[in-house]
Design goal:
DNA binding; alpha+beta; transcription; transcription regulation; DNA-binding; two-stranded antiparallel sheet; Winged helix-turn-helix transcriptional regulator
Length: about 220
């Protein structure tokens, strides 16, 4: 199909959508061809005259086969998702500035080591649900600040174990629980079905946002000294 034919076809689909979606009226519509992937991307913004709800329809039109893939996202769904993410991020961001001289991520790691002293860097990564490289960077930072120590394991000279220093113990004792700990407890409290759905949904979201290749860091730790 030629590009101008596909354009007409996409607009026809949108016109049909408006016809069958009454009592809804169109706010705007947009058609965008992508010659590389062979799809025509179309979008219509509709408003329900009964309840005022905004609905966004998106289409992918394969102009070689006249196949239409339709998805829709209401503003109520989008807002519910965004509000939940905002609440979590806001709590973590506030906490990152509430610990004098330390970030909440550092307190989180120190408290984890307090309960699992003798853990290796790999163990720490698993306990804090981060990558080994992230845990290694955090350990180096905390060691430089005199908050933890590395010791060679007595029964395995190849294994390096991590222990809190006296200063590290004092920091843990003086600080409240972090939002990271509360969040992990909240996830653990979910049913198995909800945890699976949450994991799958967040994975799909990061992939759709082209973020799946980014190495996860501890919350807000990358921007702190």
């Amino acid at each position: 199909m030629e590009r101008h034919d596909c354009w007409r076809f996409a607009n026809y689909i949108l016109q049909r959508l408006l016809h069958i979606s009454k009592p809804k009226t169109s706010l705007s519509r947009r058609v965008h061809p992508c010659l590389e992937c062979g799809f025509m991307h179309a979008k219509a913004r509709l408003i329900d005259l009964d309840n005022g709800q905004l609905i966004i329809y998106r289409f992918q039109l394969n102009w070689s086969r006249y196949i239409m893939i339709e998805t829709d996202l209401s503003t109520s769904e989008a807002q519910a998702i965004m509000d939940s993410l905002r609440r979590i991020v806001q709590a973590l961001r506030r906490a990152s500035t509430q610990y004098e001289g330390f970030t909440s991520a550092q307190i989180f790691v120190l408290r984890t080591l307090e309960t699992c002293e003798g853990a290796s860097v790999n163990d720490l990564a698993a306990l804090t649900h981060t990558h080994q490289s992230t845990a290694s960077e955090m350990v180096a930072k905390l060691e430089a600040n005199g908050l933890l120590e590395r010791r060679t394991a007595k029964d395995d000279r190849r294994r390096v174990e991590l222990y809190l220093s006296a200063a590290g113990r004092k920091v843990v004792r003086d600080q409240a629980r972090t939002p990271q700990e509360e969040l992990i407890d909240a996830i653990a409290a979910l049913s198995s079905e909800n945890r699976t759905a949450l994991a799958q949904g967040l994975k799909a979201l990061t992939e759709a946002a082209n973020l799946s290749e980014a190495v996860p860091q501890l919350f807000f730790e990358g921007s702190n000294p």
